[in-house]
Amino acid sequence: MGKLIKRLQDPSRSGVYRAARAEEIMDAVRGSKLFLARIRSGHKDELLKNIAAALEFPAWFGANWDALEDCLSDLAGQGDVLLFE
After folding, report:
1. Running DSSP on this structure, what letter comes out for residue 30?
2. Counting beta carbons within 10 angstroms of the beta carbon of residue 34, is it exposed (0 to 12), middle (13 to 18) or buried (19 or more)?
3. Of 30, 21, 20, 42, nearest to 81 (Cα)?
4. Which residues pair with 81 in a beta bridge?
5. For 5, which of 25, 28, 31, 81 could close a Cys bridge (C-beta 3.0–4.6 Å)?
6. CA 32 to each of CA 21, 27, 42, 62: distance values in angstroms, whole numbers, following the listed order
């Protein structure tokens, strides 16, 4: 797990990664200072709703791509791992 947690904690390596098993990610994050948000995927409206719920977006979230970008940009930046399942 050492390499995975180092990658997840390094902001310069942020991006989209594919994992064979969600448990790998959950195990790596456990005990770290990273925030793990498990998000169930779906069609656009359902996906946006699931992201907003998992990340506790404010009530003004407009449930569209622009609002998603705004809310993601406002995250504290303390280390978030979004796990889409």
Report:
1. T
2. middle
3. 30
4. 36
5. 28
6. 19, 10, 28, 32
- Alpha carbon distances (Å) from 73 to 3, 4, 56, 67, 68: 27, 24, 14, 10, 8
Q: Which two tokens stand for residue 60?
A: 């003004």
The pTM score is 0.81
> Taking CA 72 as the corner, what is the angle to CA 14 and CA 25, rounded to the nearest 5 degrees?
45
CA distance 62 to 79: 24
Taking the C-alpha atoms of residue 79 and residue 81, their distance in angstroms, rounded to an integer, is 7
By the 8 A CB rule, do 48 and 64 touch?
yes
Give 10-residue mean pLDDT values along the chain (85 residues).
85 88 93 92 95 93 94 80 93
Distance of alpha carbon 50 from alpha carbon 75, whole angstroms: 16
